[in-house]
Design brief:
Layout: E1 21-23, E2 26-28, E3 43-47, H1 67-72, E4 78-82, E5 85-88, E6 91-93, E7 106-110, E8 113-116, E9 124-126, E10 131-134, E11 137-140, E12 148-150, E13 156-161, E14 164-167, E15 171-175, E16 180-185, E17 188-190, E18 202-206, E19 211-216, E20 219-221, E21 228-230, E22 244-249, E23 252-254, E24 261-263, E25 267-272, E26 275-277, E27 290-292, E28 296-301, E29 304-306, E30 310-314, E31 316-317, E32 324-325, E33 328-333, E34 336-338, E35 346-350, E36 353-359, E37 362-364, E38 368-372, E39 379-385, E40 388-390, E41 395-399, E42 405-409, E43 412-414, E44 421-424, E45 427-430, H2 431-436, E46 444-445, E47 450-451, E48 459-460
Parallel strand pairs: 3-4, 4-7, 5-8, 6-9, 7-10, 8-11, 9-12, 10-13, 11-14, 12-15, 13-16, 14-17, 15-18, 16-19, 17-20, 18-21, 19-22, 20-23, 21-24, 22-25, 23-26, 24-27, 25-28, 26-29, 27-30, 28-33, 29-34, 30-35, 33-36, 34-37, 35-38, 36-39, 37-40, 38-41, 39-42, 40-43, 41-44, 43-46
Antiparallel strand pairs: 1-2, 31-32, 44-45, 47-48
Length: 488
């Protein structure tokens, strides 16, 4: 597979985000780069739509005409160049094809080749080991099947890079049961033309039974059911083992009528370095940034979420019903939650959860800061520390039951006016008075604090160095953590 190069040049600024946000002179989020460099090929072979129907040998002079037959002829280390033209799926990398090898993957490079999907099955299905696909392009019709699917016990070591997928009424890409060590990188998922995307359209679906999936450097635009879903469509049991060891990093997600990233189940998940811009405001879950309905061992770090109704939601509770899902061991740290023009965005909303840590985040201009619903056993062992809540105007925080928080201190509040309301146990109070009465002795209310020049390392109006409280899973230097996102 391609080398992961964190030192490579940064991708261009995402459209719609506007001014870049910097962290101590470095881009924020710091976007990892997945290299598109290909390993040297043992043989380079060719397939062309313009070739005669029969008689080719795969050479440049006599290319194959049948793409399915061509992939069956490939051996470890081979590279197949798919010539320009429109092809029709399905293309199946199944038991009739060979496995590649870790150091000699089988490469399929699409040279201005495009596919149209029938909607009845995936355009390309990868079910063998160590295959790599470069430059794939597909325009899907209104069926539910994806452009690209990885599934089955032999589907491991798969790389899908620099694809362009548009349209469809389901996922653009699906990582299914049995798939492992899969990379989906540097690709774009969008609607078809100027029409409205079908309600079920989603960017990437990572399903139960998959392991070791990395989604890196992709752009997903206007997919009504979200950009990435990890787990089954709803938080239910009995759908197979949860996805494990999933990384979603360095992506750009813009315009969704569902959560940009939705986790219904999973173990060992990392969601980091992503930029999420919400453009939908119709209530419910629509336009939310990252929603963790279920799962264990989830790290949400270094993301920039703009204008989301809720930047991060942890837990799920059925409205007016008994159902709920309680994620466990969730870390929400060093993220930037920003309001630029949305009506009333919130920062972090904990509906239910066990061992949820909300630390060292920057809330910039949101209406509501942190909302903790319920109490033990529904919501318990919550830590809220070292956050900068700047320009919060409606509620600095809401806590239904203070016993759900094992630590709620060390935060800095800088509201738009001299103080801001809080809600505790259903009672509205004044934050300034609450702190003056001796609660949260290591928290402060300091008007006028601001981020200078969008540099998250330059906080004006207060001293933030070594002012925080150590939190499990959050690294720091010096005597104690700094407040906010940047660690000096």
């Amino acid at each position: 597979t391609a080398a992961y190069d964190p030192g490579a040049s940064q991708p261009p600024a995402p459209p719609g985000i506007g001014q870049a946000v910097f962290l101590d002179g470095r881009p924020f989020p710091e976007r990892p780069v997945f290299s598109s460099a290909l390993a040297p090929a043992a043989r380079t072979l060719h397939v062309s739509r313009q070739a005669p129907p029969a008689g080719g040998d795969g050479s440049r002079e006599r290319p194959w005409n049948d793409l399915q037959a061509a992939v069956r002829s490939l051996s470890p280390g081979d590279r197949l160049l798919v010539g320009p033209g429109e092809y029709r799926g399905p293309l199946r990398i199944d038991a009739s094809c060979r496995n590649g090898m870790p150091q000699a993957p089988i490469q399929v490079v699409f040279e201005k080749a495009t596919f149209a999907g029938s909607g009845s099955e995936p355009v390309v299905t990868a079910g063998r080991a160590f295959w790599r696909f470069e430059g794939f392009s597909a325009g899907l019709e209104e069926g539910p099947e994806p452009a690209f699917a990885v599934e089955g016990p032999d589907a491991r070591g798969i790389v899908f890079d620099r694809a362009r997928i548009s349209g469809g009424a389901g996922p653009g890409a699906r990582i299914g049961a049995g798939a492992s060590d899969v990379v989906l990188a540097n690709s774009s998922f969008s609607r078809s033309g100027r029409g409205v995307s079908p309600v079920g359209a989603i960017g990437i679906s990572i399903e139960p039974g998959s392991t070791g999936v990395r989604v890196v450097g992709n752009r997903v635009f206007d997919r009504p059911s979200g950009a990435v879903r990890i787990g089954p469509p709803i938080a239910v049991s009995g759908t197979g083992p949860p996805p494990r060891d999933i990384v979603v990093e360095g992506n750009t997600f813009v315009g969704s009528r569902s959560p940009a990233v939705l986790v219904t189940a999973g173990e060992g998940l990392r969601i980091s370095g992503n930029t999420i811009l919400s453009t939908e405001w119709a209530g419910g879950l629509e336009g939310r940034g990252i929603v963790i309905e279920g799962g264990t061992g989830v790290r949400i770090e270094g993301n920039h979420v703009v204008d989301a109704p809720v930047s991060v939601q942890v837990g799920w509770v059925e409205p007016d019903g008994p159902g709920q899902s309680q994620p466990a061991d969730v870390l929400v740290a060093r993220n930037y939650f920003e309001r630029r023009g949305a009506p009333d965005p919130s920062g972090v909303d904990v509906e239910a959860g066990d061992n949820v840590r909300i630390a060292n985040n920057v809330f910039d201009g949101v209406f509501d800061g942190v909302l903790l619903f319920g109490g033990p056993p529904r919501t318990r062992h919550v830590v809220i520390a070292n956050n900068l809540l700047l320009g919060v105007s409606r509620l600095a925080f809401r806590v239904d039951d203070l016993s759900c928080a094992s630590l709620f201190d060390g935060n800095l509040f800088s509201p738009r006016t001299s103080s801001v309301p809080i809600e505790i146990g259903g009672e509205i109070r004044d934050l300034r008075r609450y702190l003056f009465d001796g609660h949260m002795r290591r928290s402060r209310l300091v008007p006028g604090v601001r981020i200078l020049h969008k540099d998250l390392g330059r906080v004006d109006g207060v001293e933030i160095r070594d002012s925080g409280i150590p939190v499990e899973g959050v690294r720091f230097e010096g005597r104690a953590p700094d407040l906010g996102l940047s660690e000096h």
